[in-house]
Amino acid sequence: MDARQLDKAMRQELLTLSKDNADGTARHLVAAGLAVAEDDLDAALEHAQAASRRAGRVAGVRETLGVVHYRRGEWAKALAEFRTARRLSGSDHLLPLMADAERGLGRPERALELAATPEARRLPPAELIEMAIVVSGARADMGQTAAAVQHLRELVRKGSPKAPWAARLRYAYAAALEADGHEDEAQEYYAQAAHLDADGETDAAEVLGLDVAPELIDLGDDEDPDDEGEPGHDDRDGSPTEGRPDGPGGPGRTAETGRP
C-alpha cells in the first residue's frame, strides 16, 4: 500500500501530522478507498476507523469514515462524522450527504430543512444537483410523489447529457416518475440513465432487465456541460461518490466513496 496513492488534497490535509503518522494514516485511507471500490465495507470500516484514531482532527479523515458508514447504511454514525468533518473544515460540500442521512433515519422533513439553508443554496452545481436528488427523494418519502417529479423535471430537461451527474439525475427522475405512477416515462428515463452510465453509478440496466446498456438513445442535447449552469430552486424552500438511487452517491449517491 503506497501512501502516494492518496489524492493531493488529502495529502495536504495530513501535513499537520508528523511524517510517520501522516504516512500511516494515508495508507489506511488508501486501503479504505480500495476496499470501498471492491465493496468490502467491513475492511473499509476497519481502515477508516484506524485512520480516524490516528488523525481524528483532520476533516478529510472524518469525512472518509462518514462515507464508509453511509455506504453501510449506518445513517446516525455517518451523520455524526459528516457534522464533525464540516465543523473541522468549514466547508458545506457534505450537506447533500447529511440531508440524505436524515432521510435514511426516517426524517425527510429535516432533509428538506437542510436543503433550505442559505449554505445549501450556495453550493456549486454538482452538489446542488445532489441536493436536488435528495429533496426529490425526501418528497417521495413523504408521499409527495408529484412534487418529487416536479423538483427534477426542469433539471433533467434543460441539463446536458454530457454533465458528470447526468446518469444519476435521470435515474433519480425515473424513480420519481415510477413512484408517481408514470411507468412508461420512467422506463424511458431509466433507459437514458443506463445509456449514459459508463461508470456503473446506477443499476439502471439491471432495472430494465438488460445485460448491457442500450447502444443508442437520442438525448437531443450536445451542448457542453459548462453551459448547463446552476440548477434552479423551484420548490426548494428548504441526490459522487454509492447509496440509494434517489439520493447522493447511490445507484443514483454522491461522495467519491459515497450512497443513492
Automatic annotation (TrEMBL):
Protein's name according to its UniProt entry: Tetratricopeptide repeat protein
Coiled-coil segments on the chain, per record: none
Composition skew (Basic and acidic residues), residue ranges: 230-245
Annotated Acidic residues bias: 218-229
SUPFAM superfamilies: TPR-like
Originating species: Ornithinimicrobium avium
Membrane spanning stretches: none
Gene3D superfamilies: Tetratricopeptide repeat domain
Region annotation (Disordered) ranges: 211-260
InterPro entries the UniProt entry points to: TPR-like_helical_dom_sf
